[in-house]
Amino acid sequence: MRVTQNSSFNLVKDTVHQSRSRMEDLQEKAVTMKKLNRPSDNPINAAKVLEMRSEKVKNEQFLDNARLAENYLRSSESVISELSDIVLRAKDIAIGQASGASSSQASRVGVAEEVAQLYQQAVGLANTRIGDRYLFGGYKTDTPPVNPNGQYEGDRGEAMVEISNGVFIGMNLPGVEVFNTNADVSGDQSRLMQREAAVAQGDPDLAQAEPIRDKNSPENVNAFSELGNLRIALLTGDLGGIRNTLDRFDEIHENLTAQRAKIGSRLQGIESAAKTMERANITNSKLNSEFEDADMASVMTDLAREESVLKSVLGTSNRLIQPTLMDFLR
Amino acid sequence: MGASNVMQTGHTGMIAAKTAMRTTGHNIANANTEGYSRQRVEQKSQPAIAIKGITDNVGRGVQVDRIERYNDNYVTKQLRDGQQELSNMEERDLLLLQVEDIFNEMNGEGMNRLMTKFFNEFRKLANDPDSEAVRQSVREATNAMVQDFKRLRSRVTDVQSQIDNRVEGYVSETNSLIRQLGSLNQKIVEAETAGRSANDLLDSRDRTLQELGKMFDLSVHYDDRGNFNVDLKGIGPILNGVHGLELSTQRSSADPSNGKRDGSVDILMTGSANNKVTHAIRGGKFGALVEVRDSTLTNIIDKLDDLAFSLTRAVNQVHTQGYGRTGRAGVEFFKGLTQKAGAAENIDLSDSIKASVDNIAAGALPNATGDNRIANSIANIQNLRIMNEGKVTTDDWFNSIVSDVGVKAGRNREALDQQRGIIDQITKIRDQVAGVSIDEETANLLQYQQAFDASAKVIQVADEMLETVLNLKR
After folding, report:
1. Chain B residues touching residue A161 (CB < 8 angstroms)
2. Between B394-434 and A43-97, two packed helices, what is the crossing angle to 10 degrees?
């Protein structure tokens, strides 16, 4: 084989270039500590890394959402549990005053005052706020959901938050479902107001006219109405009316317990979603680092090896280029 | 046979040796000249003639037959073809590197993040639909995304117009190379008809052809009248002997079937039946430039436009169903776009949203401050497959642009490295045949020097013989 000057020089130049470009590559990895510095380094992994990045941002938001929903639901739960206490206390009062033997009109008027207090407390609890948002107003978060007459002024909106990809969970319970045992049947609150007015005017006949219960069709019981009913029954000495409230307080209490159970299961859902999310975050960052991060130990070893390659290339070049026949013809 | 004949014989030897030494010197001088093919003096013996008194014929010395150029046409062609592909890949590499740079999101910033942020702001809005601060930040995040759409698109079109400039530059380079080839052809014919060696002119032509071959795929052949012709592969002759055609450029209107954008440059060939050769030229720098401009980049722009268009449409569809804080319904979030083309450039917030963040609709009911259904639906668009006829999500769509560019650039770079290796190999083979080896030339120099010395000695001896003859008389 003829070896020409050009090919020897080219060989030297090429090997030096190759070695230097490998070193440059390694140096970039060493400096950025990444092996994925541009998409072409590994296009498939690059797309995957981008995907995982947006996943991570989303997951963080989902975790935020989960925390927010948890906060709302826990607050709702504590309000509902206080409402339960109020209902139980009202029931106690009703039991105490239900029989003529153990109570007198004077004692009934006395406890009626307590029932009025309970009513005020209940309305206050129903109008609980977190920040500047009313908890039980449904979508109507800027106005008190229950007016002083115990009427619900919110709507049935449930604000959904995303706690993992495409999984939404309600962060509030619309008050209408908390305060009513059967919200789909419209409660006759106007009737209650007529009776309130009758009591105020001292018209016991109208005040005593109890709505008739129809056992066949589902009936709605409203917590505030029932507290109002109890107060009126106490004031008017309507023992039957007082007894009537007992079942209804039970129904209300049952409903409140059901609402708490609902919250409990939502909280559980949130917790498991958050756990999955945290696990996914860990897996993602592991995978991410696998795709993106350079193995520094091997980069450094490679760099050292490449350095010795370059040195030997330069060393041998010296021998390869130097002598020609000219040097020996003296 | 006279002594003067012997002297003459010695003289031919000296001339041949001198010519050989001169050629050797020429080789050594050109050892580093690119495209130079080593030359060798081919000598032959002068035919013997009958001499009185001798039964056999006697040789009359040496004569220089011709100066041979060591060159393998097949290797030259391989080298030219290899260079054509190499230039194609190098040009492509240069462009794709820039495009990759535009879409390099590996450092963490860029459209991928901004798009996620956009959707995320709607998730935050869903958490707090009535908050002024969150609404402001929804608008800010959207603005950042809109600006990035515009930035990406304009940077890609920048590369396209940069390609146009390069095409124009290469066209004038090509024309000058074709003119050079024409005049070289003329000189070669002149030299050859005069019986002179055209070795160095042939080297020049090979070199010029190689340069021209970097521009596009070409083929060469001699026609039946002995003219040296260059054909543009797939188009036709561009040089016939000394007559060359010219390329020219023209900014022309769009050619959608080839992906050419309005106002970008077309390549024209004078004398071609169909003047426009932009998309007929294959290989080389032109091939790379046109393909990247009209296929790769146009494709990216179309994808960006599609993304911007589909995103604005999907968001608007949901947003117009909702109610803003002031109870206004039917407000568009983005400015409505009528067509896909240019969507990534024309994307913008609607005037109502620009005017007030109160017009951002978070809920599906009027006067329900806690209603977050619209915000949730918009955030959920991120999970919907709204691209490519319901097959791909917006995230995947954009990531596929990034990885497409990466795949193209990566594959090209690999091929480029390979091609460099191939070129090295062919160059080595060419050097084996045509390259100058200093060792060899030095040895030859000594050999010819000795031949020269010996021939001179012959003359000296002949001279002495003549003197002896002349002294016979004394």
Report:
1. 123, 126-127, 372, 376
2. 160
